[in-house]
Specification:
alpha+beta; 4 helices; single chain; 8-stranded mixed sheet
């Protein structure tokens, strides 16, 4: 399955909450149906991107990066690359690359959508990132570090997040914590939630860029 086909299938089968999330799902689907190149970074003025919100196993801390160009705290994420085979794979690759963490337990189902304008992405002008967000767990205390795209990577308590964090980031964090809480079963790992059907991927599992 191509990356474009995977993105269409994931969004077609995803059940968003009513309101803005449902509207964004339709917006993203219309874009992909109209543009076979809709995931390419050269698709102007809109293209689909993917990201991941990383939480500690007890869900009380979130790992964020201080973006070098935007100078704001974000979840991890970015553009699709030629070697990517799925949207969840894009999110996982970006999460591993930008966090410096060796492995993440990824929920393969989208958790949140967001559309945002970016002024520094394309020399032709402002582009809109149609961002499909996933969520993952990483062990608290695991080694991490900033990539060339970030100024800092840091764990933040969910009740003491960076000042000025955007409303959509608060929505993403809340939605991700709710998703993991709902996934807890009697067969979950001791000490924290685990997805039924989720998977832990190491950096070595990812295609080269």
């Amino acid at each position: 399955m191509s990356l474009h086909a995977d993105a269409l299938a994931r969004l077609q089968h995803w059940q968003p909450s009513a309101g803005r999330q449902a509207e964004l799902r339709q917006r993203f689907l219309a874009h992909l149906l109209a543009r076979p190149d809709g995931l390419d970074r050269g698709c102007f003025p809109d293209h689909v991107t993917a990201g991941v919100l990383v939480l500690s196993p007890d869900l009380d801390q979130v790992l964020l990066n201080l973006h070098r160009k935007a100078r704001r705290w974000f979840a991890f994420g970015g553009h699709c690359e030629p070697g990517d085979r799925s949207l969840s794979g894009v999110a996982l690759r970006e999460g591993l690359e930008e966090s410096g963490v060796a492995s993440l337990e990824l929920d393969p189902v989208p958790v949140h959508l967001d559309e945002h304008a970016v002024d520094f992405c394309d020399p032709s002008g402002t582009v809109h990132h149609l961002d499909v967000r996933f969520t993952a767990l990483a062990e608290r205390g695991v080694a991490h570090g900033a990539s060339e795209e970030s100024l800092d990577v840091r764990w933040w308590p969910v009740d003491a997040l960076p000042p000025g964090l955007e409303a959509e980031m608060h929505e993403l964090i809340s939605a991700s914590r709710d998703r993991w809480r709902q996934s807890i079963t009697s067969s979950s790992q001791p000490g924290g939630p685990s997805l039924s059907g989720g998977s832990t991927w190491a950096a070595a599992d990812q295609p080269s860029r």
